[in-house]
Structure formats: structure tokens, C-alpha cells
Design brief:
Helix content is 76%, strand content 0%. It has 135 residues and is mainly α. The chain has a domain at 39-107.
Length: 135
């Protein structure tokens, strides 16, 4: 490249006080917009529904530790929302939703295992009955 075309230091620009003030104001407004998060009401609603669904799926069985953890996190999310800490409220609400889904999944797994054991026991009883009736 020809030395006259390449200048590693561009000419310094002078900023007027109005331009500097405008730049600072714009940056401040942009940071303020990023810092203020809207309340996570939709996430709280989804988490509440997931918790209700997991509780219903558990039925009469005692609540699992996962379900208790989900309830605790949802309560803390609601408290964070009341304290205007929207970031913490959103995070806790998401965690509560995941914990509720885990609790529901584990509950369904336990039900499926119990049903499989019943089917195996019934199959074994049928096989024993057939073996006993042979002459």
C-alpha cells in the first residue's frame, strides 16, 4: 500500500459541547432502558400453572422435595416481584417452572413403575394359574 494513502491515525475530530452532551444523554437513556426490565408476569403465570399441574399429577401422594422446592421458589419470585426486583423474580419463576416439571416427571415415572409392577405381578399370577391347571 502506498504510504500516502494509509494514515494509521485519522485526524482528530472536535466535538461541540452540545454533541458531547447529546452523546452522554443517549448513552444514559440506553443504559436506563436496559436496566429496567418489565415485570415477569407471564413467566409467573406459566410457573404457577406448571406448579398446579404438577400438584394435581402428584394426587394423594405426599409432595416430593422437587414440588416443595418449586413452591418455595415461586413464593420467592412473588416476593421479588413485590420488591420490584424483576430480574430475580423472572429467574426464580423460571426455576420454579423447571422444578415443577421435574416433580411432575418424577411423579409420572413413579406411577409408570408401579403400573409396570402390577402388570408383571398379574402376568406372573396368570402364568402360575395356567401351570397349576395342567394335568
Amino acid at each position: 500500500m502506498h504510504p500516502s494513502r494509509f494514515n494509521p491515525r485519522p485526524a482528530a475530530r472536535s466535538r461541540t459541547p452540545a454533541a458531547t452532551t447529546s452523546l452522554i444523554l443517549t448513552a444514559t437513556l440506553a443504559l436506563a432502558a436496559c436496566a429496567s426490565l418489565p415485570p415477569p408476569t407471564a413467566q409467573l403465570a406459566v410457573s404457577t400453572a406448571a406448579l398446579a399441574h404438577a400438584s394435581a399429577a402428584a394426587g394423594q401422594t405426599p409432595p416430593s422435595a422437587d414440588l416443595a422446592l418449586a413452591r418455595d421458589k415461586l413464593q420467592r419470585a412473588n416476593q421479588a416481584l413485590a420488591d420490584k426486583d424483576n430480574l430475580a423474580a423472572g429467574r426464580l419463576a423460571q426455576q420454579a417452572q423447571v422444578d415443577a416439571l421435574v416433580a411432575e416427571s418424577r411423579g409420572e415415572t413413579q406411577k409408570a413403575r408401579a403400573a409396570a409392577q402390577e402388570v408383571q405381578a398379574a402376568g406372573q399370577a396368570l402364568a402360575d394359574e395356567l401351570a397349576r391347571k395342567k394335568p
